Amino acid sequence: MDWWNALGWQMQFFWVISIVSSILFLVQLALNFIGHDIGAEDINTDFEIAADFSIFSVRSMLAFAALFGWTGIVLMNKGYSLPIVMLGATFAGAVAMLSIAYLFYLFFKLQDRGSVFDPYDAIGHAADVYLTIPPNQQGVGKIHLTLEGNFQELDAITPHNQPIPTGQKIRIISVQADNILVVEPLLALET
After folding, report:
1. Where are the chain's structural domains?
2. Average pLDDT, stretch 90-101?
3. Residue 3 reports pLDDT greater than 80
4. Which residue has the higher pLDDT, 190 or 9?
5. Which residues touch 113 (CB under 8 Å, ≥6 apart)?
6. How far separated are the first and last CA of the chain, in Å rounded?
7. In whole angstroms, what is the distance from residue 70 CA to residue 125 CA?
8. Is the pTM of this model over 0.85?
9. Per-residue pLDDT for 89 more than 50?
10. DSSP 83-150
11. Are 66 and 19 spatial neighbours (Cβ–Cβ below 8 Å)?
12. Are 101 and 45 in contact (CB under 8 A)?
């Protein structure tokens, strides 16, 4: 404890910031790699460059604090004045924050959507009516669609004035906000 007491308050400040933020960053990183994505909820700011690239996330803030603290310790040991140390530590922390944000942005870009179905991918594709689709968007029917090897049973409506019976071929023309597909009979396209 003599070592700690011999330090000035500035040096104690940097050591506390360094140790606490480094431990939290390593714990968060380890949990992230085993599947617990703690810190993925980004702080909502106007500083987001793209939808998946956020500068102010928990992990990037921890990276800022860790490098801020360690740089402050190094600069204090070299004998620089407190304003220079704060400026240098802030710059190093900002570089760490941007670097971590960018690295995780690249990391998450590599992830595959897997078998997640996006109804907008179905637009223009043909499918079979499973349950009759009522006319004039007055009710919801069901269609069967196989897209990229995945079988889907989906809700569908039609703007046409005739019902589309079970077994008829349809084409998907759009998607409503609630992911109900808007379809039309293939026969209507051919005439």
Report:
1. 2-109, 119-190
2. 90
3. no
4. 9
5. none
6. 89
7. 57
8. no
9. yes
10. HHHHHHHHHHHHHHHHHHHHHHHHHHHT---TT---GGGGTT-EEEEEEPBPGGG-S-EEEEEEETTE
11. no
12. no
What is d(CA 165, CA 82) in angstroms, rounded to the nearest whole number? 79
The pLDDT value recorded for residue 47 is 38
**Residue length of the chain:** 191
The partner residues of 164 in beta bridges, in order of sequence, read 133
Contact (CB, 8 A) for 92 and 68: yes
The residue to which tokens 């897209």 are assigned: 147
Token output for 86? 């704060």
* Domain 119-190 annotated CATH 2.40.50.140: yes
- Round to whole Å and give the CA distance between 179 and 191: 28
As a whole number of angstroms, the distance between CA 59 and CA 96 comes to 10
Per residue in 141-184, pLDDT (tens digit) is 999 988 877 788 889 999 999 999 999 999 999 998 788 999 99
Closest CA to 169 of 111, 130, 113: 130
CA distance 13 to 86: 12
Q: Between these two residues, 45 and 118, which has the higher pLDDT value?
A: 118
